Amino acid sequence: MTIGFAHAELIAVLAAVTGGEPRVMTIRSGVALPSGSFEMGHRTLQSGLREWVQEQTAHPLGYLEQLYTFADRDRNNEILGGRTISISYLGLVREQAAPGGGRPGWHGWYEYFPWEDWRLGKPAILRGIEPSLMEWAGRDLDRREERARRVAFAFGLGNAAWNEDLVLQRYELLYEAGLVPEAGSESGPGRSMFADHRRILATGIARLRAKIKYRPVVFELMPESFTLLQLQRTVEALAGLTLHKQNFRRLVEQQELVEETGDTTSETGGRPAKLFRYRHAILEERSLAGSKLPLSRN
User: Of the residues 89, 112, 181, 283, which has the fewest C-beta atoms closer than 10 A?
Assistant: First the structure.
């Protein structure tokens, strides 16, 4: 029996929404996510991650939750003869300049996953992705029906509806089909990343898309005061979908998540719009499970 060694890595998916677009903090000029080894001097996993994020990006951290542990045997890593276990975290921040030493920068989610943005309708890039996936599904005669069902379910084909939460499943199908550079393809849809960092980013996006439906975490991404339209555009950016304006506002009001500040803004370009703020008192008034934002679609 061969005994190897495992290397523990901490990795951060830091999300922000700026100008109505969802963005992620990267290092190495957009190729990788902030990450580093878990070292003996780190008091906890989270404190270790915060140290690496500070060193590589110098961006302040706020909300942070553990995302997932990646320990697959065949993961790509830079540890010769060893195995990397990556403990990932999802952080929600408000975008600032990042002067850190890891060539940090902000990039749009949909640079990496252009098929996930349905705000202007079905993305044109899917016209090339879907036939390629179905062709791959048909190659294995023994598994073609099972593969075709998986593709239809993940990408909303046939009688299946598009489910915005299946970000990871869609990326993993593209990987399994060999359609992305991370799987050895010379080219492929979306911007590639180092090792399995795009898979980890997909996991973070999926978690956040699901979580905004049952926890008011979106307010971690909002300024102190905002218009209801800004709030709606932020939710739409994260979900990759457009929402019905009046239904959205009615459900936000029913949830009692926000309150008027008494001020208005003219920055919307039309008549002055009321400014709102998140009702922090709601954390004490009710269970968080009852405080959510609506995703009633257009």
Answer: 283
105/122 same-domain check: no
Assess if residue 208 is contained within a domain: no
Note whether residue 210 is domain-resident.
no
What integer pLDDT is reported at residue 82 of this predicted model?
A: 65
Distance CA 37, CA 55 (A): 13
For the chain, residues with pLDDT lower than 50 are: 1-2, 79-80, 286-291
- CA distance linking residue 45 with residue 124, whole number of Å: 41
Tokens of 61: 């951290």
pLDDT tens-digit readout, 30-64? 999 999 998 888 889 989 999 999 999 999 998 99
**pTM for this model (two decimals):** 0.91
d(Cα 53, Cα 50) in Å, to the nearest integer? 5
> In the chain, how many domains are there?
3
Phi, psi for 289 (deg, rounded to 5): -60, -20
Whole-number Cα distances in Å, 15 to 25, 35, 63, 92: 7, 15, 10, 5
pLDDT per position as a tens digit, 154-172 = 999 999 999 999 999 999 9
- Please check whether residues 77 and 168 belong to one and the same domain: no
182 and 131, same structural domain?
A: yes
Residue 138 lies in a domain: yes
Domain span including residue 155: 114-189
